[in-house]
Amino acid sequence: MSNIFISYKRNVEPDVTVATSIYHALRQEHKVFIDTTIQVGEKWANRIQQSIINSDYLIIFLSDHSVNSEMVIAEIETAHQHNKTHRKPVILPVRLNFNQALIYPLSAYLNPLQWALWSSKEDTAKLIKELEEAIAGGKLPLDENSSNENPLQLLEEIPTAFANIVRDSSSPEGTMANHSPYYVERETDREAIRALNEIKGVTIAIKGSRQMGKSSLLNRIITDGYKQGMKSAFIDFQLIEQATLESADVFYRQFCGMLAWEFNLDDHTSEAWNNPLGHVQKTTNYLKKYILDQIVDAPILLAMDEVERMFASPFRSDFFSMLRSWHNKRAQGGEWSRLNLVLVTSTEPYQLIADLNQSPFNVGTVVELGDFTMQQVEELNQRHGSPLNSGELHKLVDLLGGHPYLTRRSLYLVSTQRMNFKDLLIRAYDDDGPFGDHLRNHLFRMSTYPDLQSSFLQIIHHNRCANEHVFFRLRGAGLAKRVGIDVLPRNSLYSHYFKRRLDG
Q1: Does residue 152 lie in a domain region?
Q2: Taking Cα atoms as reference points, which of 53, 79, 108 lies closest to residue 237?
Q3: Within 13 A of 231's CA, how many CA atoms are on the CB side?
Q4: What secondary structure letter does DSSP report for 100?
Q5: Rounded to two decimals, what is the model's pTM?
Q6: Where are the alpha helices (DSSP H) in 87-229?
C-alpha cells in the first residue's frame, strides 16, 4: 500500500471528474488523499502540507486551468523540494487534453519526467492502469521526446526563460507577453528600459513583492536586449536546491555551469576549478575567460530572478560582493563593459547586507514596483472594454488596493462574463471564490511558519509588527505594507480573509 496525493484544479472540468475517478479507483489498494476528504473545521493548509511530505506519489493533473493555479504550483514545488532530500514523493504528471508547453517554472519541475495523456472519458480506464503500473514500480508511458498521436505543440517565441506564456492574452495568469494589450506600462518600466538602451553596461535592480509584475518587466527587458543583439542568460534562484545554497563549492560550480548552459557554451567548470583560488575568484575568472572572451560580438545580459533566496545562504555576502565587483569592473573598460546585470528580488536587500558598499542593489538603476494607481486601474478597465463603471472601480480599488494581479483577474472575470461584479464582491473572501486559489496559496505557504501567522495577526489587529525581520518577509510575500509608522495588511481582502482564517 502506497500513500498517494492527488493534485488538481478545483471546480473545473474535466479536472474534477478525472481526479475523482482516479481517487476511487486507487483507494481500493492504497491510501489516497484528495482535498475533498478534509473534514469541516480541520486546518486544511497544515493537512495538505503533511499529506504531501508523507506521500510516496503525487499525481498531478495538468490542464489549461491547473497549470496556472497557484495552489497546484505550490503543491508541486513542495513535492519537488521534499523529493530532493527524501526521494519522495515521486511526481506522476497526467496531461488532461493538454498538449501545450508547460508554463515556467513548471517546465523546470516536470519536463524531465515521464507523463500520461488523457484526451477523453474513454481514456480513463487506460489511465488508471498506467498509474497503477507506475505505482507498482514501472513508468508512465510518455516523455517530452515521445512520438505519439498528440505531440506537444511547443511555442515558437524569442528564446528566453519566459517563452511559455499563456495563449489567452487577456488572461491574468503567468508572465505577460510583450505585445499584450493589457500590459500597463509604469514609469518604473520605462526607467528600466531606458537604462538598458542608453547605458553601456548597466546594473538594474528590480524590487517588489510577489505578483507586482517583476517577471513581466524582466521579460520585457530580456526581449528588448534580444532586439538589441544582446546574448542573454536567465537564472532563477528558486530552482536551486537548498542544499546547494548551503555549500559554496557546490553552488559556485553549479552557477558557472548554468552560465555555460544558458549561453550555449561548453562547460569548463572542471578545468576552472583545478586551481587553488577561492570560489569568488574562480567564478569571476570563469565569467571573463569562458563567457566574455568567448562571446566577442555582442553585449551580454545576465538576468537573475528570486535572488532573495541567497539571503539564507552562509556565503551570501561573498556572492553579492562578487556581483558588486563585476559592476565596478566596468570602469576598467574592455570586455567587462559589455556585461549587463539585472537582479530581481521580493525582499528588501538593504536589511540583509551589512556593508552597503558591497551591495549590488544600490548601484546603477534601482526600480521599485508598486500597486496600480487609480488612474492605471481606469486605464486597465478601458483596455478590457470598460466592464466596470466609476463607482465599481472605486469599490474594486477599496477591496484590492490596486494589487496588479488581482485587479487584472477581476477585470478578466467580469469582461469575459465568467462572473458579474456583484457576485465577485460577495464571494471575494471565499476559498472557492474569484480569489480563492490565490488566498489559499498564501495560507498554505504560511502554514509551517507560526511566526508569520502570529505577526500577521498582530498587523491585522494592531497595525504593528514587533519583529522587523518578519515584517520584511511578509512585505516580500506581498501581504503587508508600511504607511508612516503603521504596518498594515496590503489590502482589505487580505485583512478580512486572514483575520477569519488565522484567528480560529
Answers
A1: no
A2: 108
A3: 19
A4: B
A5: 0.81
A6: 106-110, 124-135, 187-198, 214-227
200 within some domain? yes
Q: Where are the beta strands (DSSP E) in 361-471?
A: 365-368
Banded model confidence at residue 158, pLDDT cuts 50, 70, 90: very low
**Domain termination residue (choose one: 106, 135, 164):** 135
Among 497, 291, 493, smallest CA distance to 399 is for: 493
Q: At what angle do helices 450-462 and 436-446 cross, to 10 degrees?
A: 120
Domain that holds residue 450: 438-502
Beta strands 57-62 and 90-96, pairing class: parallel
Q: Do the beta carbons of residue 122 and residue 98 sit within 8 Å?
A: no
- Residue 146 · residue 140 · CB < 8 Å: no
Under 8 Å between Cβ of 214 and 254? no
Q: pLDDT tens across 409-428, in order?
A: 999 999 999 999 999 999 99
Q: CATH number, domain at 103?
A: 3.40.50.10140
**Torsion angle of the four alpha carbons 79, 85, 89, 91, in this order, in degrees rounded to the nearest 10:** 60
Asked, for residue 380, whether it belongs to a domain, the answer is no
Structure confidence by residue, pLDDT tens digits, 282-311: 999 999 999 999 998 899 999 999 898 888
Q: Is cis: bond before 89, omega within 30 of 0?
A: yes
pLDDT at 153: 35
Q: Examine residue 171 and state whether it is found in any structural domain, yes or no.
A: no
